[in-house]
Write a structure and sequence with these properties.
It is a single chain. By secondary structure, the chain is α/β, with parallel strands linked by helices. It has one domain: Rossmann fold. It has a 6-stranded mixed β-sheet with strand order 6-9-10-3-11-12, sandwiched between helices. A 4-stranded antiparallel β-sheet has the order 2-1-4-5. The protein has a two-stranded antiparallel ribbon with strand order 7-8. A hairpin with a 2-residue loop joins strand 1 and strand 2. Helix 4 crosses helix 5 and helix 5 runs parallel beside helix 6. The radius of gyration is 18 Å and the shape is globular. It starts with a strand and ends with a helix.
């Protein structure tokens, strides 16, 4: 599904990624952990096509399509979704209009007609229930006046609506209390299927108590230095990263 081979990338002339190799198959959840500055968010930004990052070497393929040759919009149409660490506010644009425009852009790429109002509202109510969002959120500006937990739930709601092939959750647990964390994680687990995959970027093992990964990778100094099963996250919680990085 997703294949990253020998990926190097810079920002502002500074090399951040220094040879990432990663393969993710359909239905898998991969957690990426590591100390601050290791390159975790840079990796997510490069896959999604965020401005300011320059790939100097390597390959990224999704379903045998060269991701690095695509614009950010084309990557979204191909099935890549990025949940931001700090979701942005979009004043003047309601959730309902934002999501309807996004859904119709995806449908356009598949040569499908625009979604009907009735079908869209039915779909939206169903997906909002996944993350326990009140219907009143649909008429509010995107993330405007939302709490931290509400913003993260709104990101998972968007994910549910778009049904991407690959979802990248960049520190979705940041700033969440236990109840909000559980709601967000349950939403992700509801959306897991044999046909989609997730990359979960986190500092903490607590998120992985709820979203159980198939693989855990430790990123340090721009490289994956260790890969193991879900038990690795528990070891990191107890010992920190030094025992891995200094091996």
């Amino acid at each position: 599904m997703l294949k990253i081979k020998d990926l190097y990338a810079t920002i502002d002339g500074k090399e951040i990624l220094k040879g990432i190799n990663l393969t993710i198959n359909e239905g898998e959840v991969h957690a990426i952990m590591g100390p601050n500055g290791a390159g975790k968010s840079t990796l997510s930004a490069v896959i999604a096509g965020k401005d300011g990052y320059q790939v100097t070497h390597g390959e990224v393929f999704l379903d045998n399509k060269n991701v690095l040759e695509m614009s950010p919009e084309e990557r979204s149409w191909a099935g890549i979704f990025l949940s931001f660490q700090y979701p942005v506010e979009i004043p003047g644009v309601s959730n309902v209009n934002f999501m309807k425009a996004a859904i119709n852009e995806h449908r356009k790429q598949e040569n499908l007609p625009p979604i009907s109002a009735a079908e869209f509202l039915k779909m939206m109510r169903k997906k909002m229930a996944v993350v326990k969002m009140d219907n009143s959120f649909s008429s509010r500006g995107v993330n405007v006046g939302f709490s931290g937990g509400e913003k993260k739930r709104n990101e998972i709601f968007q994910l549910a609506m778009l049904e991407p092939r690959l979802s990248i959750l960049d520190e979705t647990d940041s700033g969440l209390d236990v109840d909000a964390l559980r709601i967000v994680a349950n939403g992700v687990n509801t959306l897991r299927s044999p046909k989609n995959s997730f990359i979960v970027i986190t500092h903490y093992q607590r998120l992985l108590d709820y979203i159980v990964p198939d693989f855990v990778h430790v990123l340090s100094n721009g490289k994956i230095v260790k890969t193991a099963g879900k038990e690795l996250a528990t070891e990191i919680e107890k010992k920190g990263y030094d025992w891995i990085i200094n091996q």
